[in-house]
């Protein structure tokens, strides 16, 4: 086959790929031009399965690592700090000598996140299993965090809806308001003399978003490892898909 014919067929396959055709049609076209081989015999089914396997591995790792005790609290990259909106409350509390209360408060924020992320796996699995062949090819050729961003787009709203009640329950379970209310009250009392504004941050939404952001930080780490480090490709399928020319 000459170069012109090969180019024409590759263009034809690209049109088929993004025209909503079946996986069988895509595979047949790729077979015609040899695009599925790349020296490794890579098929559309393997590309799709490889991307799904990578996401299952990365998302499962993220949930397992962050949902244990201190998964957020002792991880400096994930730890949810005192809300920025209430920084003045924290500053005032520290001036009043309430250091231990501030520390307990921040710990309870992270305990709530650790509890909430336990709900993530079924949501991730559902999004991953519904990935199309077109999605898979796009992600394979994407940047280091293309699959992570895909998963965030597909699951972000669902995760928030699922996490929020869990965070709320965790907040009650660990008596978060027991620690927060005295701090907020102390600050708000001080504002009557200083003329500052009282604060009332939405702690449940704050912790919920922090839990989601932490999960995707870990998933992005895993995706980058699989793409860049052959040692992280722990199965034959991952080695074949992410070691192929198409993944570069």
Summary, kept brief:
The chain has 248 residues and is mainly alpha-helical. It contains 11 helices and no strands. It has 2 domains: 1-35; 49-247, no CATH class.
Describe the secondary-structure layout.
Elements: H1 3-17, H2 23-33, H3 44-66, H4 87-95, H5 99-116, H6 120-129, H7 133-140, H8 146-173, H9 176-194, H10 203-228, H11 236-242
Summary keywords:
248 residues, mainly alpha, 2 domains, 0% strand, elongated
Strand percentage: under 5%
Give the fraction of residues assigned to helices.
over 70%
State the secondary-structure class.
Answer: mainly alpha
| Major beta sheet summary | none
Question: In one word, what is the shape?
Answer: elongated
Task: Give the number of domains.
Answer: 2
How far from one another are the termini? 24 Å
The gyration radius over C-alpha positions equals: 24 Å
Order of helices and strands: HHHHHHHHHHH
Strand tally is: 0
Q: Count of helices?
A: 11
- Spans of at least 5 consecutive residues whose pLDDT stays below 50 are 1-21, 25-40
| Mean residue pLDDT | 76
Summarize the structure in words:
The protein is an all-alpha fold and 248 residues long. It folds into two domains: 35 residues; 199 residues, no CATH class. Helices cover 70% and strands 0% of the residues. The protein contains eleven helices and no strands. Helix 3 crosses helix 10, helix 4 packs across helix 9 and helix 5 packs across helix 9. The N terminus is likely disordered.
